Design the sequence.
């Protein structure tokens, strides 16, 4: 009897073990696939209508939606796509498992960029494309490999202008793109929405009784004005300005439109090396108006859920533009010819003003080493986000294209927003004092919601 049961046990083990193994394998594969799918959100949906990148007046410039994005030949005639495909291919974990592991150490990525670039220079078709690019894109390409520029001026603290006795780490660091000559813009920001120190959040009915607030810090990001265009040397003045306010971060590159991407990349690097303990980073222009008290309350509300969901490392919020086609009008400053970039842009947050977590800033710093520079800064940030498989969140209170219609004239309109573009320094100062004066009268309003979105969900 004992022998009999023993034999059956052997048969049982022989037949069932492989079955069990297969079952477990299927189970595992299923779970992995489900997790993958959950991570990827559709970049284009019918609710996100087609959008053409800023500066275009007609809609005929829509790029066709690529039917199969993995087919190389679709991008063969576009300079940037070819360069980036080369990098992506050498980092593809399926094609080159060992290279990816080695590359993940960080600084090795920049080597890949250089390699793809020097290989491209040898290829005949890339040479031909390059010679047919418009001059301003050629100028960009000539410098697109270079990312190290010396720092000319930097704040003395670890993250920009600060308050005297800060009792907590800062909640937000305002990093503001500006130019040497825009002293007036900087001064208006220092006196209004960008004032460093403790800022109380906007009180709301619904939210908790206790007052929320946070410390704000500020740093201005600058390149250098071309001295030939300027005629005079104002670097001494800027040095004095930094001595007085301690909020200038300047690098030694020409402050041109195509070079704006360098401000993102170099800021991420500077930020990652500094030991700035801020929770959030704001990156925006010097001609926007920010409702800082609203922003503080909004970020506090977010912080609770973000930490609970462990999504703080992916957090970016702004005016999100989905599935935009590159601007193909050659008179625009956003003009990108088909021979430089083909296809649509990834989902990106308009560069007028965007807020992200400091964790994300550090991840962007690393990932940017495997993405070739692009002459439009906010699109470039979107490209890096795509590589991180992170997507910016849209909030209708970021008005990077100003108020729609007559909405600005409504009472309390500025109490319903987080940011509006664009406002000059005089207007900014006036708006800030209005905001203070109407505080009690407008304390019951809530942040604006998307009118368009509401209508779509009705039918
Ligand atoms: C501008 O002035 C600063 C000091 O005042 C000097 O170090 C710098 O070389 C000057 N730049 C040019 C282009 O002359
Ligand atoms: C970017 O800055 C570098 C360094 O100053 C300059 O040589 C280059 O021409 C600039 N690029 C563009 C596209 O203006
Ligand atoms: C985040 O967590 C909150 C509850 O803490 C939940 O209501 C919300 O749906 C979650 N969001 C995401 C994107 O998972
Ligand atoms: C806030 O409370 C007031 C009454 O105290 C009420 O009229 C108003 O609707 C509330 N607002 C919000 C946004 O809940
Ligand atoms: C949405 O609907 C409201 C009325 O319900 C209308 O006044 C408004 O113009 C609509 N907005 C759009 C963008 O269609």
Sequence:
């Amino acid at each position: 009897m004992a022998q009999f049961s023993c034999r059956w046990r052997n048969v049982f083990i022989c037949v069932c073990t492989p079955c069990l193994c297969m079952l477990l394998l299927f189970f595992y594969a299923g779970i992995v696939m489900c997790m993958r799918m959950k991570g990827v959100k559709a970049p284009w949906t019918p609710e996100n209508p087609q959008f053409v990148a800023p500066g275009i007046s007609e809609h005929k410039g829509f790029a066709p939606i690529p039917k199969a994005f993995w087919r190389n030949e679709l991008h063969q005639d576009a300079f940037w796509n070819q360069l980036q495909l080369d990098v992506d291919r050498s980092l593809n974990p399926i094609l080159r498992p060992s290279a990816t592991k080695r590359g993940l150490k960080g600084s090795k990525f920049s080597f890949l960029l250089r390699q793809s670039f020097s290989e491209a220079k040898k290829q005949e078709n890339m040479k031909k494309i390059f010679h047919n690019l418009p001059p301003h894109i050629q100028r960009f390409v000539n410098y697109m490999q270079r990312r190290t520029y010396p720092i000319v001026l930097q704040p003395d603290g670890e993250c920009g202008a600060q308050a005297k006795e800060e009792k907590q780490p800062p909640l937000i660091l305002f990093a503001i793109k500006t130019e040497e000559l825009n002293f007036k813009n900087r001064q208006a920001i220092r006196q209004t929405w960008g004032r460093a120190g403790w800022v109380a959040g906007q009180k709301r009915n619904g939210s908790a009784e206790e007052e929320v607030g946070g410390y704000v810090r500020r740093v201005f990001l600058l390149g250098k004005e071309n001295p030939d265009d300027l005629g005079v040397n104002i670097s001494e003045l800027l040095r004095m300005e930094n001595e007085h306010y301690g909020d200038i971060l300047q690098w030694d590159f020409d402050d041109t439109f195509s070079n704006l991407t360098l401000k993102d990349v170099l800021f991420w690097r500077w930020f990652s090396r500094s030991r700035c303990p801020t929770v959030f980073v704001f990156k925006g222009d010097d001609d926007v108006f920010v409702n800082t008290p609203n922003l503080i309350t909004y970020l506090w509300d977010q912080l609770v859920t973000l930490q609970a969901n462990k999504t703080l490392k992916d957090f970016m919020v702004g005016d999100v533009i989905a599935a935009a086609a590159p601007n193909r009008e050659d008179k625009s400053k956003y003009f990108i010819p088909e021979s430089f970039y083909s296809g649509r842009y990834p989902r990106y947050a308009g560069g007028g003003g965007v807020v992200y977590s400091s964790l994300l800033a550090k991840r962007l710093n690393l990932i940017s080493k495997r993405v070739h520079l692009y002459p439009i800064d906010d699109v470039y940030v979107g490209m890096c986000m795509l590589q991180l498989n992170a997507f910016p969140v849209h909030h209708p209170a970021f008005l990077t294209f100003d108020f729609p219609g007559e909405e600005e004239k409504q009472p309390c309109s500025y109490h319903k927003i987080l940011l509006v573009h664009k406002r000059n320094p005089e207007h900014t100062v006036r708006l800030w004092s209005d905001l203070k004066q109407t505080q009690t009268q407008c304390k019951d309003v809530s942040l604006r919601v998307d009118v368009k979105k509401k209508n779509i969900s009705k039918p």
